[in-house]
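Cross-check.
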Amino acid sequence: MSSTDCHDEGRAHHAMEISRFDMGERFSEMTVVDLGHGKLIYIAGQVADDTGLDITGQTRQVLNFIDGLLARAGADKTHIVQARVYLASVGDYVAMNSVWDDWVPRGHTPARCTVGARLISSDYRVEIECVAAVHHRMHDHAEGPLKPLRG
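Predicted model, tokenized:
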């Protein structure tokens, strides 16, 4: 964990906290940047543990992993603002979407791209990464509502 001072025009200094979860030698499964007024949650590409599953099973497993990581950061799938889906076969697009559509809450579809890609192992059918944003509740801030920054 590290922190950095940051300053929003017209607002007091506060510490920016960066937390890394399940950090390995090359990457973390999740990085959370707490900006004081909210946090950004970056989830690394998730793949299925059970590579014997078909595309729908692997997609369900990956989305369950994402749900678990988001919960650890105090968020849920309604907070996802962007997702990237990598498919080993573009022929799996419809089947993957059938699981995705059941998982994403109505009215909370994030910006998303889907790419046909050669994944790190031929056993993986899908890999999904995402970014989520959570705003701290207004009553948590004595300063009142946030105002847009002027550039």
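The first strand starts at residue 2 and ends at 6. Residues 1-11, 138-151 have pLDDT under 50 and may be disordered. Passed to J.P. for a second look.
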